[in-house]
Amino acid sequence: MTSRTSAETRPSKTGAPLIRMERVRKEFGRDIVAVSDMSLTIERGDFISFLGPSGCGKSTALRMIAGLLPITAGHIDIAPSQTDTEHDLGFVFQEPTLMPWATVFENVWLPLRLAGLSRTAASDRVRAALVEVGLSRFENAYPRELSGGMKMRVSIARGLVTRPRILLMDEPFAALDEMTRTKLNNDVIRLATEHDLTVIFVTHSVYEAVYLSNRIAVMAARPGRVVADLTVNAPWPRGEEYRVSPEFSAEAKRVSTILKGTLDDADIDH
């Protein structure tokens, strides 16, 4: 396994977990403990949401999995890839983080260019990624010419163009209107299914977590930690019929109750 150390679900294809977090801790300076004693096993094919209030360590945990933040203590192990890919991980940030001076094509090409692929060598993969997110006609457009939802689609295409096994998404739709967010939720489910992705999705929305996920890791703050690992009892992948079903409402209520309990406990403890 690739290891980072201090310094009812979608079926796994093997019995071995894809990602294992063991007693992970992250401190900022001497006084701030962002994540403490976080242990979690993620299987191949999981779509798992990290759900919790702002400041509970969701994004910090995601960045430690990605290797963007060092771990203070504990272990994060990622099973080695069985295919020849440039990157194991694709990352979609909360903001699209596009280069304003570059075209849509050039923004999606960026990770492949950094991996040494020329524009010509990467062109088929870039254009295929743009087709998948519905932006094939916009490859020569600039970010200033795009809507917020279109910019996020470019960011998703950039995350997919390296053909990762694992897609990490850090509240990517939080700033979007409800209709755009709903459409992109459906697109992410489709892409996860088509590419057999393992997805870790950070959100503070109970409804988004329930709709997207087969598992939800409920996190509490002070310090950030997983207090419940829930299975979403509904067939996956899902469509709009599930969003308006009594089952969806009941599942959202169950998760909301558990999340509220963690917030009440935090108020009592602190």
Short characterization:
The chain has 270 residues and is of the alpha/beta class. The protein has helices spanning 58-66, 104-114, 119-132, 148-160, 178-194, 206-212, 240-243, 246-269; strands spanning 2-5, 19-28, 32-42, 47-51, 73-78, 89-92, 166-170, 198-203, 215-220, 225-231. The radius of gyration is 19 Å and the shape is globular.
Describe this structure in words.
- This protein is of the alpha/beta class.
- The protein has helices spanning 58-66, 104-114, 119-132, 148-160, 178-194, 206-212, 240-243, 246-269, and strands at 2-5, 19-28, 32-42, 47-51, 73-78, 89-92, 166-170, 198-203, 215-220, 225-231.
- A 6-stranded mixed sheet has the order 6-7-8-4-9-10, with helices on both faces. A 4-stranded antiparallel sheet has the order 1-5-2-3, with helices on one face.
- Helix 5 (178-194) links the parallel strand 7 (166-170) and strand 8.
- Helix 2 runs parallel beside helix 4 (148-160), helix 3 (119-132) crosses helix 4 (148-160) and helix 6 crosses helix 8 (246-269).
- The longest helix has 24 residues, at 246-269.
- The radius of gyration is 19 Å and the shape is globular.
- The relative contact order is 0.17.
- The model is unreliable at 7-14 (pLDDT under 50).
